[in-house]
Structure formats: structure tokens, C-alpha cells
Automatic annotation (TrEMBL), chains A, B:
NCBIfam families: PRK02769.1
Gene Ontology biological process terms from the UniProt entry: carboxylic acid metabolic process
Positions of post-translational N6-(pyridoxal phosphate)lysine modification: 324
Descriptive protein name: Histidine decarboxylase
Enzyme's top EC category: lyase
Pfam family, one: Pyridoxal_deC
InterPro entries the UniProt entry points to: Group_II_Decarboxylase, PyrdxlP-dep_de-COase, PyrdxlP-dep_Trfase, PyrdxlP-dep_Trfase_major, PyrdxlP-dep_Trfase_small, Pyridoxal-P_BS
Gene Ontology molecular functions: histidine decarboxylase activity; pyridoxal phosphate binding
UniProt KW keywords: Decarboxylase, Lyase, Pyridoxal phosphate
Length: 494, 494
């Protein structure tokens, strides 16, 4: 119990002596006794990071661009190191100038990266200028949104407004729902499945194999038995396979993840058929349904012919991402569940003056304000218009791809266009496409204009000529992924 | 599979007919056939929220200020409802005016609430003006910080810089650590304990009873056996009790949560003694230690005589909050663990072009930039100064409380001053004190000045005269919480 910072310095000196030779510890090490006096003579270089930024704001590229996925490695591809300020930094202003330079380069790269972005379902079209006045407050919604906490710098009043809007959208009365604004879609799935497990402790988790990986992560975290169900070519859950698997496990209750838009193909599981399958397999009263509506949970209510996601059906929780269709500068999500389920999860926490049924204790209080602002500005009518525009543009893209002889598929209720995986990884990275096996996808969000799609198409067609024009290589067959009718490989075209 | 939004409208009309009478559905319901046409004649009022904001930007107070913690209730204390825009809102500008008015009132309340804040360990003193240029980008660090993702609008380069800084602080080499920037301290604990469980699947979770509630939440989520260990009056873990409990469960490995600053008393568990206890109880090679350094993980390296948190000792993971001592407008945290442990948690996720050992998939990309900015500006030297100031001010507060005859305690390594719980809840709320049983606490952060403490003290002393002055009521005895030597109740004072 003696030493503190002096110990720190000494230990580091010891460490330098015993470190392997190849470690390059930059900065002058000074282990003289004077370090024992605090505070003026503390030499921060003693614990300065071992590598520093070379030049002026140029990120250090420590490895070649290695895209292999390797377990057990820790790739420092690019990083902006933190450098201990010099004692005279305040005078020279060098520190501020250095940081301003890093930030300005970073901003330029963000503009470029935002411009070439098609693969992830993030609406990058928003203007939150009116909210910048709030950026410098430490807004934190601790614990349950419906129970006042003693911490006053929160935004519960916005959060509850947003939750009410969503509960209404999914038709659950105000006194029958509970929910909160999460950090992302994953947290929504973690929460929904946890509630399911608490309601049915010996329940088995069922999810189609095209579900988001967070669903299977939840199963592992929570030590649940987990059964993967097959899918149709569209990406929807295969209810025949679901039934078979239910019957094999009929003694235990079912906790079911239903995809309202799968990650890769944007396929919407048929909720009505899932419920019917459960009922006819003898699971009545013994199942819990979580709807993972990450993207389409908000689009579907505005799509003609879409099966309705509503709590009037036998579902138990719904989650949706806030940074996707709504558009929000940081990841967030909305989680709505039946209030009666929440008691099983709650515990009294005097520290927060709050029961806490959330997964995270501290929660970002800015996100609810962003959501509140957009929902208020656009309203249902505004979202409806945007959904229609996205669907129109997605159809445009799919039609043009097929016309150009490029394999493509678009599910009826979706704005996710699946296409053959471009041959060149550099092209994939440039357009930030998400890929799986032989397919890639473009998610048409409100910020994806016809003009942007045209540029993408032109570039893709021009590249394909290079890749496949001389006949040496052939475009991949993706019939198994998108169905033979949508495949344009040499075996399937026409 | 037919209907979509028309179905929505129709269902809502059906719903109105079958809803209980007491539900007040505002807005004109119009269920005529014309709703079947899209998009122009869709009437958004059909799905407008059932309650709306009265007046101009004044929040609706739906219940009286009920602070009871009641399970199974859903208290809509105050909320800013979201109202569907009128068709002519763009013309009249009323919508924008209404929202501007709500935001401006909210901002005023944030200023006031930020001014009177003492109970939570959040440093509210920061200036991130230089970063406002980045606010309108949708920055998302999906998956593992060390593996490039195809999504280009990220801030990994800042995140890795921050992680390197912390790994260095806690003395773990760059090629031996793994970590990420979390959403909050809770996520750090959830991650550390999950890794512990994956390393020792049948391990028992040990934590002192004064650990943060997220530790016990993790135990329940992960279906782990959990043993609560007693504490000393200071709040530190009682190693004698720990040893007894280890010996009762000697057949199973131990996963231990060590508090580097407990939530309520700011007590620092004696890490060296915990390790010694494990070794002498026969647990050598069969234990995992997670250090919950929510607040003090960053302060301790700068405190004289503090036991050192370092990976040179047998510890396995450390977490710290980013929005506490560092100060950050949204909750966040840093999690550092040994790289070798991470493989047990990882799974290959082609969708992200990334293995993902994080708990959350999508992560706020702004938080790393805030942290990077502050660490770069202040450096180790800056933090050292601030820590010293906080400790000085905390001593000042404790001394003045005791001198005034008010029970108070301050742990040696802490800036958390424990005091008798003020009698009046309104006073507690005004100063946003966190309370537990008969005690409350003030956490002296860099933004808590002597001047602010003086105002608090004056107000408290004046109130106490009213509460206890006429002898009808007596200040609570808190000897059991803070030790008789720190208690100033009528039984214990001198």
C-alpha cells in the first residue's frame, strides 16, 4: 500500500529492463530518484505510450492491409496514438494545432466515406443542427425510463415520448408496455431473448439460420439450448423445418426469434405462419416471440401487403434500430415488450432510486432526443414517403442489374438488393458493401439517390468488363443464394 | 399478406371499437374507404399517439411525483409526446417553432440541473467545441476494433489510440491485450465476467456485497453460481470472509470481481490481499480476476499510496468508465483484457468481415473521439493535477461536515464523501445525491469546486436546523455504515 505514482515509475523502469529487445519504447526513460517527488517532477514520459505518431497528423500504418480474419491476433491497422503533451504546449499552441489537423483530415475522410456508402442500412441523411446546443451536456438516462432517478441531467421525457410513439405503432396500450432506448439492435435482441428465458427458464431458443449473429450470441451468453431452423431461398424461415424441429423438442417451451428483415437478404419471416406452426405443434401458451425488427420494424408499417407486426398478435417483444431507417449519428435502438414480463427481470436498486430492467445501467441520453426530433419532424406521413422512395429506388437498382446481366434479387417487402459479390475487394471496400459467401448487398436508404445508384452501376459494369470481359474468369453462380430465376451466371442466364 | 398500411388503418378502426371506454383516443378517427388509397390520402391521425402535448412546449405531468419503487407499474411521469405534423406545417413554421421551444426549455433545465449536481461521479467539466464538426456523421465502430470492417464511417483509429493509452497505463503489452470502448461501465463488467465464465465454465462468481449491481445482474444473466462476500466498514471486501467462502467451494474455480472504488463508499478492494487469499486457499491457476474500475480505475494511478492496478499482477480484465472522471457527454467505458482469453469468446462473422468479441455489435463511434481528444489534451500530467484537486476538495468537504457535527467518512484513496442521508427528499433531488439506507454520498469530480461545496454545506446546515433544530427529530445514527468514529449522531458524538 505504498508507492502510487512513484511505484508506477519504478515499475516501468524495471519493466524496461526485462522487456524483450524487439519492443521499441520511444521517449527518454528517466529513472532517477527525483521521480519520487510529487507532483511537479513527475515525468509523464515514463508512462508515455510506446509508439507515437510520426509526422504531422498522419496515421501510422502498422501493418499491411491484411483483411484475413485471424483469431488470436490483434491488428493495429491504423491508429492515432495519444501523445503526452509537452510542458510548453500551452504556450506554443502546437498541441492544439496537431489535434485540429488530425480532426480536419478525419472529417475529410468521413465525407468521402459517407458519399460512397451502400452496404449498411444506415440512413446518413439527417440534419441535427438544432441539437448541437445540447452536445456539451452529460446526458445519461440511468436505469428504467419510467422511474425517476436522482440524476437530473437526463432526457427521460423525450425517451418516453419516443417509446409511446413506437408502442402505438405496434398497438400496445400505454399501461401494458415497457421499453427503453437501447444502444443498438444487438441490445434489443439480447433483451428480448433474456426476457423470454426469464419467462420460460427451460425454453429452447429457435431462430432461422439467417438471423443476425447477436441472436446466437445471446443463446450462448444465456446458456440456452439453441435450435437453428432452415430458410427458403428468399431468406425467410422455413416453417416446415420449424415444425419438424418443434416436434422433436415438444417437451420444452419455445423462445422464437422472428426476423422482420434479415441482415443479408432483407427477408421478412412470416409471423402469422410462425404463430400458426407453434399452435398446431402443441405449443399454445408455451412460447415467447421476439421480433427482431432492426431495419424493417420501422419500414414495414408503411409497406403495402406487409404482414402486420402488432402486439394484438401473440408476440412478446419487438426491437428496432434507431440509427438505421430513422437516421441518427450514433447507434441506438428501441425495445418494446409487454409490461407483465418485466417484473421477472426487475430488481430493486436503491442506488439509482430505480428498479432496473435494462441491460445497460447508464444509457446515452442524447439518442432519445435525436429520435424524438426526427419523429416529430417527419411523422408517420414523412416516413411513409421515405419508405416508398426507398422501395422504388431498390426496384430500379434490381431491374437495372438484371438488365445488365448481373445476378440480383429483391424481396417484395424489402429495400435490400442482393447481388453477386463483386470480384474485387477494393471495389467492395470502396462502396462499403456487406458480403457473405458469393453475394453482396446494397441497402437502399433514404440518402441513397438514383444518381448515386447510377454511379455505382456504371462503375460496377465497367469493372466487370475488366474482370470477366476476356473470358478468363466467370461471374459466380449464385442460384443457390437467390434462386436460378435471378441468377445470371453463364449456366443460368436466359 | 395483404393490406399494409390500409390494414393498419382498418385495424385501428376496429381497435377503437373494441377498446375499453376509458382510453382517450384523441384526434379525429376517419375510417372511410378513401383511406384505401395511397399515398396522398393516408391520414396519419389514424395512428397518432393517444395523448398529445397540451399548451406550447410544456411537458405533461401525468402523475404526481411518486417516488415509490413499484414493480409492475409504468409511470409516465413526464413526457414530451410526439405529435403528427399538420399538412401545412412546412408553410406555417409552427412545428419548428414548437420544437425549438421545447428544446430551449430543456436546455435551460439542463443548465440548472448540471449546476446542482453532486451525487454521481460524472465530470461535467468539458469543452468539446472542436468536435461539433463531427456530430452529423453516423459514426459506428461495428464489431472488433482491431479488425477492419467494410463500413467506412468509423473511428477505429481513435479507438485503438485510446485503448493503447489504457493498456499502457495498466502495463499490458500491445500484442498481449485486447479491448474495446464500451457503452458504459456495466458493459465492461458484463464483458469481464463473461470472459471469466468462458475461461472457467464451472467457475463461481465472487463479489463483495458492495459491488455494483451489474455484477450480480451478470451472474444471473449468465446462469452462474454467485457468492456474496462481506465487507469491512470502509466498504472494502472482507478477505477473512472471502477465504471462508472460498474454502467452502474449493472444488470449483473462482471468478472474482474486485472493486477499484465501490459505487457508494468509493472503497478500493485490496487487490494484493485478494490474490494472496486465492493463492493460499488453493486456487492458484484456477481463478480469474475482473477489476471494476468504473471511477477509480483512472484516478488510482495518480494517487500516492494506492495499490497498483497492473496486468503484471495476476488479473485478467479491467474496466473503467469514460464519462466519469474523463468527462464525456455520453456514457462510455474502456475494457481491457488479456488477448489470450478472447479467442474463447470470438466467432467469425463474415457479415462484418470481423470476428466479434464485443457484447454490442454496433458501437458509438463518437465516444472514442471524445476520449481521444481529452486524453491528448490533458495527458497523464493533466489527470494527475485533477486527481489531486479532487482529493483535496473531498478532504475539505469531509472536514467541514465533521466540524459541523454531521456524520461523514472519506476513504483514503477516494474522492467519494459519505454522509448522513439528508432528511428531506426534495433536498436530495435538488443536489442529485445518490442514497442508500441512511447514507448519501457526494462524489467530488473536477467540476466540483470549493465554491459549489460551500453552497451545498450552507444549504445543508440551514436545512438541518429546520429538521433537527427543535429536538423533535434526530439525525440518523450511521455508525454501522461509517464506523462510530465518524458518526455524529446523539449517541456517538464525543
Amino acid at each position: 500500500m505504498v508507492g502510487g505514482i512513484m511505484n508506477g515509475a519504478t515499475d516501468l523502469c524495471d519493466k524496461v529492463e526485462t522487456l524483450p529487445k524487439e519492443l521499441d519504447l520511444k521517449g527518454t526513460m528517466n529513472c532517477s530518484d527525483k521521480l519520487a517527488q510529487l507532483p511537479n517532477e513527475f515525468d509523464p514520459m515514463e508512462i508515455a505510450p510506446p509508439f507515437t505518431l510520426e509526422g504531422n497528423g498522419v496515421a501510422e500504418d502498422l501493418t499491411s492491409r491484411n483483411r484475413d480474419i485471424v483469431l488470436g491476433r490483434n491488428v493495429h491497422t491504423i491508429s492515432y496514438a495519444i501523445k503526452e503533451p509537452e510542458a510548453d504546449d500551452d504556450v506554443t499552441g502546437e498541441r492544439e494545432a496537431y489535434m485540429a489537423s488530425v480532426l480536419s483530415r478525419y472529417r475529410t475522410s468521413l465525407i468521402e466515406r459517407t458519399k460512397h456508402h451502400l452496404g449498411y442500412p444506415y440512413n446518413l441523411d439527417f440534419d441535427y443542427g438544432a441539437l448541437s446546443q445540447l452536445q456539451h451536456f452529460s446526458i445519461n438516462n440511468l436505469g428504467d425510463p419510467f422511474i425517476e432517478s436522482n440524476y437530473g441531467v437526463h432526457s427521460r421525457q423525450f425517451e418516453v415520448g419516443v417509446l409511446d410513439w413506437f408502442a402505438r405503432l405496434w398497438e400496445l396500450e400505454k399501461n401494458e408496455y415497457w421499453g427503453y432506448i437501447t444502444n443498438c439492435g444487438t441490445e434489443g435482441n439480447l433483451h428480448g431473448i433474456l426476457v423470454g428465458r426469464e419467462v420460460f427458464p427451460d425454453g429452447i431458443l429457435y431462430a432461422s439460420k439467417e438471423s443476425h449473429y447477436s441472436v446466437f450470441k445471446a443463446g450462448r451468453m444465456y446458456r440456452m439450448e439453441c435450435v437453428k431452423v432452415g430458410t427458403l431461398v428468399s431468406g425467410e424461415i422455413d416453417c416446415a423445418d420449424f415444425e419438424r424441429k418443434l416436434l422433436m423438442n415438444s417437451e420444452k417451451p419455445a423462445i422464437v426469434n422472428v426476423n422482420i428483415g434479415t441482415t443479408v437478404k432483407g427477408a421478412v419471416d412470416d409471423l402469422d405462419m410462425v404463430i400458426e406452426t407453434l399452435n398446431k405443434s402443441g405449443f399454445k401458451g408455451r412460447f415467447y416471440i421476439h421480433c427482431d425488427g432492426a431495419l424493417f420494424g420501422l419500414m414495414m408499417p408503411f409497406v403495402k401487403r406487409a404482414p402486420k407486426v402488432t402486439f394484438k398478435k401473440h408476440i412478446d417483444s419487438v426491437s428496432v434500430s434507431g440509427h438505421k431507417f430513422v437516421g441518427c449519428p450514433m447507434p441506438c435502438g428501441v425495445q418494446i415488450t409487454r409490461l407483465k414480463h418485466i417484473n421477472v427481470l426487475s430488481s430493486n436498486i436503491e442506488y439509482l432510486a430505480s428498479r432496473d430492467a435494462t441491460i445497460m445501467g447508464s444509457r446515452n441520453g442524447h439518442a432519445p432526443i435525436f429520435l424524438w426530433y426526427t419523429l416529430n419532424r417527419k411523422g408517420y406521413r414523412g416516413f411513409q414517403k421515405e419508405v416508398q422512395k426507398c422501395l422504388r429506388n431498390a426496384h430500379y437498382l434490381k431491374d437495372r442489374l438484371l438488365t445488365a446481366g448481373i445476378s440480383a434479387m429483391l424481396n417484395e417487402l424489402s429495400s435490400t438488393v442482393v447481388l453477386e459479390r463483386p470480384k474485387d475487394e477494393e471495389f467492395v471496400r470502396r462502396w462499403q458493401l456487406a458480403c457473405e459467401g458469393n453475394i453482396a448487398h446494397v441497402v437502399v436508404m433514404p440518402n441513397v439517390t438514383i444518381d448515386k445508384l447510377d454511379r455505382f452501376l456504371e462503375e460496377l459494369m465497367e469493372r466487370r468488363l475488366r474482370w470477366y470481359g476476356n473470358g478468363e474468369a466467370r461471374a459466380p453462380c449464385v442460384a443457390v443464394d437467390v434462386g436460378p430465376e435471378n441468377c445470371r451466371c453463364s449456366d443460368h442466364k436466359n
